[in-house]
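Input chain follows. Return structure tokens only.
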Amino acid sequence: MSAVKLQQPLFSAAACTLRRAVLTVAILTLVSFSYLSLKSLRSPSLSSSSTITRSIQSSLPEIVDYADGDNAERGVVSEKEREESDDVEDDDVYHSPKVFRLNYQEMLKRFKVYVYSDGDPKTYYQTPRKLTGKYSSEGYFFQNLRDSKFVTDDPDRADLFFIPISCHKMRGKGISYENMTIIVRDYVESLMSKYPYWNRTLGADHFFVTCHDVGVRATEGLPNLVKNSIRVVCSPSYDVGFIPHKDVALPQILQPFALPAGGNDVENRTTLGFWAGHRNSKIRVILARVWENDTELDISNNRINRATGHLVYQKRFYRTKFCICPGGSQVNSARITDSIHYGCIPVILSNYYDLPFNDIINWHKFSVVLKEKDVYQLKQILKKITQEEFVRLHNNLVKVQKHFQWNSPSVSHDAFHMVMYELWLRHHVIKY
């Protein structure tokens, strides 16, 4: 019995020793793993491996899941398309750069437009021989659309229907406003009776383009066209029935530009502000009266005479920080896109102007947007903008120049593609 009693404490002691040993090993193992984990976070080789992994992932085609009702369609974004859209992914000039990038790629793959072929070719759209002047945006748009992959000959595949009328061309032929209204009304009514597509949506999936204010007058005789269809116009005035969530503001671009694009030249811009033009609106009269004799603002109450020198007016944009853009007979002005092209920060001086591509790009990042009443404090407002803020605005301005340029043929993210993107956003309202 004594031998058995002696063995029990020895067994208990051995068991305790074994437990302590196991616990010690566990603790040492945990400490070792923790040390190795912390070391791996600082390890250049592992960091490089992580970089390599990200690089490999970025080289793979991106799978985008597109949903359309109950059906889903999967598309692969090619490397070329990725490169074209990379420049918008992180730019702060866009409200939602990633959303814009993905939706833009979806538009390129899926958007289809049916162009009505009916109509008198002498009156309706055809590509002009020369794409020049303030209202050449109409001609550029139609030429770009005609030559693009967006057009479909199958109306059942179309997302939108283009009504190819050119009020500017009608005006050039000497047709009166009254007769223009009759022509447009008769033409659209013929489309209604001949095709079923207008009647399915009362025209909500139809659009037309006009950059001349004559287009507003010529379409007044058909209220359903104005209220229901998408109007792509250069005069987005609310007092003529412009509806921001339905209609599209078309940039008024005076092409071809007389001189190359400006930008990355802030050291050359020593004049505070510049404007020269006709006093064909109240705000322009006030601008000239208040500031034409100022020593820091270069304000002229008439267009610069060509006799003073070759392209003197355009060259003023190159040496000016802020170019004043007051509304003329309409809220819009081609001077805005002139300013953007020449690298001069546009100062929008107009009430109720739905700026082009306003739901895509943030105008406050590359321009100064003011109300007409601010004209009396114009100089003080501009002088409060620091050099650092000016440089930031200028750099952002260079980023958006491509969006305000017509090309033939069109190129990615130019004015044509931006207008098509605006239409793409609106085509989801009604889908058949």
